[in-house]
What we know:
Chain A is of the alpha/beta class.
Amino acid sequence: MSAVLPATIxxxxxxxxxxxxxxxxxxxxxxxxxxALDRELIGLAPVKRRLRExxxxxxxxxxxxxxxxxxxxxxxxxxxxxxxxxGKTTVAMRMAEILHRLGYVRKGHLVAVTRDDLxxxxxxxxxxxxxxxxxxxxxxxxxxDEAYYLYRPENERDYGQEAIEILLQVMENQxxxxxxxxxGYKDRMDTFFRSNPGMASRIAHHIDFPDYSAEELYAIAELxxxxxxxxxxxxxxxxxxxxxDRRRGQPHFANARSIRNxxxxxxxxxxxxxxxxxxxxxxxxxxxxxxxxxxxxxxxDPAA
Amino acid sequence: MNRRIDPxxxxxxxxxxxxxxxxxxxxxxxxxxxxxxxxxxxxLFRVTxxxxxxxxxxxxxxxxxxxxxxxxxxxxxxxxACDQYRAKAYRVDPxxxxxxxxxxxxxxxxxxxxxxxxxxxxxxxxxTASIIGNVFGFKPLKALRLEDMRIPVAYLKTFDxxxxxxxxxxxxxxxxGRPLLGATVxxxxxxxxxxxxxxxxxxxKGGLDFTKDDENINSQAxxxxxDRFLNCLEAVNRAQAASGEVKGHYLNVSAATMExxxxxxxxxxxxxxxxxxxxxxxxxxxxxxxxxxxxxxxxILHLHRAGHSTYTRQKSHGVSFRVIAxxxxxxxVDHIHAGTAVGKLEGxxxxxxxxxxxxxxxxxxxxxxRGLFFEQPWAGLRKMMPVASGGIHAGQMHQLIDLFGxxxxxxxxxxxxxxxxxxxxxxxxxxxxxEAMVKARNEGRxxxxxxxxxxxxxxxxxxxxxxxxxxxxxxxxxYTSTDTPDFAVTATPA
Amino acid sequence: MRITQGTFxxxxxxxxxxxxxxIDYALAQGWxxxxxxxxxxxxxNTFWEMWCAPLFDLKxxxxxxxxxxxxxxxxxxxxxxxxxxxxxxGFETTxxxxxxxxxxxxxxxxxxxxxxxxxxxxxxxx
Lengths: 304, 494, 126
């Protein structure tokens, strides 16, 4: 059972002079989550650093509260920008847990939505839809993916604006009840914030999720494969690196997601290769991806 | 069909049916590798054989005498498909903590399976006449107890079950989320109709949900039943108007004959009562008739288990109350007295919890620590509300809720009427104690440990409760229980 | 007359924090909460007006409290209650129900008697 810091402790008889931050950190058990994040997610160094900074800030806010130094409730709403497959949803879930353990959200669950979950199809439909989503997310974190789709100024009959108004209200007045994380491509989020200064002003933390490097993508591929109890033989390893180099530059590259898709296709080809070969498939053969399983990809076509 | 044949069983039919006396195990009543069918009724007996009788023979004898056998071989057996009708004793286990080195004679658990065709559909009278009708006086057994039964779904489906059930009862009362409160009118005997109604009015107005006739209040010289009914319904309705809540009084319609019972029940209905009451001693046939009547007339049916402890209390001989509870759920009653554990009447806490689970779970798992030996699905038969009644008071509220949860009726007869400031105060004290305890439990407090503190806190805003706690705070009933479980809870490693 | 319907009506009126605690308990059991109101508190009236549809899938009391507050504001002279519903097999019914708001003046009930045959009376409440 995870420890959760109470927002305030029972009043002591004498004022406390200081708070042992180490002890507070241990008590909250936030360290376990941050360490797990380090282990489970490859790369994302700037994101992980940012997360630790935010955690430290929130921890110190707690410490100040205990000493009666009030700052008011810190704003916790965030924006995560980056290409698809860079870990935004995963980190949002971890963020919800961290906020819960530090006592900033009451229950710590994550509700992930897109525009369609918030905006209605006809008049009077949007407000109840948005409010229903908000109610479900209360006590936890609301993650809105591709949030910029809420704003469609070119269509005056678009109901997205209504959803934005309601969100702005809640983000300002019910900070105790809900934390909102908006996510999407960086350039489009920038445009969205420029056109919606009210929204921009409510975001306390902007975190950018850089694309993975080729080396990081290769490490992700290895991690995924070992999790599924496969390995690459030396030629396949080489082929994988080449695959990554080529694929990155191509359109619609979704980072870790694209790697997963590529691995799924490689596994399919391996299966068919073994089946066509017939006879007894050894444990070794069943667990190994060979070079041809990867090189069969269209990515290697001379025309590409 | 058994695969491994008991070496003593006689296979050749001409040998088997020659006139004379055979051991029961020779006649085929002991079949160690019989696999009970889904549709078999299974009974578990606790057997104390006479000296010199081996356990398999004793089990076979029980099987035989509760099904087709008699003391000597009869040729007419061969006119029947006797292999099917014969009950099969298929397993015998020693009972823990009995035998050499203990203070109890060696006892054995004997498992016996009965074919479904032996029983009339939908008849508790027939089920009981079959299983316990003959065998308990049998000389080769020193003592015998029917410990538990597994009723197959195929047989359960021939019964209507409780006419109302816990869910519908609550919906009729519009009361959710807490145990219901009741009280038996005291003194047990002697009040006239009008005075009786006065007690009912005071108790209901003070805050109880129900009041109750005692089991021996039928129709006597000091109060005729019609006077009681008229006065009680006046009191119930006055209390309802004075509180804005649904109230009820269990009118006891038990009588000498079924015709009298129907007459009394009809009058209760005419007066607008929502609930009537019967005693166990009216008999299984009468109980099923009244259940049918209750269902037809939208009446909640309360059963007082009068007389049960003559045969349920001693572990060595009789019928366990858990079996009675199963029969009553099948016969179809809505409330059944099932024990308090902490009050004045017999009841070990775990055993009583076992009874409560039989009453109100949709499916019983095996739970040896609570005395449930079989997995028992209830096939959609409605749930019975267990009633805790007998020597309990407001100061035990935390123990009662901790042991029994919300779906039960807690009856504080003496604990209401004996309150120093009067009956209304007694009722209010119980109701405030109950609501405060439920509220605290929902808020996450550990009521088993903090119960007394919670009661004291609630008493600060409620004088009647403070007085009740003071009057009865030292009352406990600490005697060694006679009907304890045979299997202890084993602590699981962390 | 203080009508004693609902699970906690013999205790002092619940504070908002206490109401929240009960809602959190209900949500933790997996029950869905709803808010209902009425101006007809007769004990046989089990169909109060639904302020909103039952709120399924909530993890925190805040969403329910919003509706409670809105209902209390919209109907200051009505009774408002919170009910928690359990949809599991064998129950499929309300498991908890308590009043969260009472009108300033609560009505009394008068008992109406209709004479029947013999000494019997038929009772109703007005």
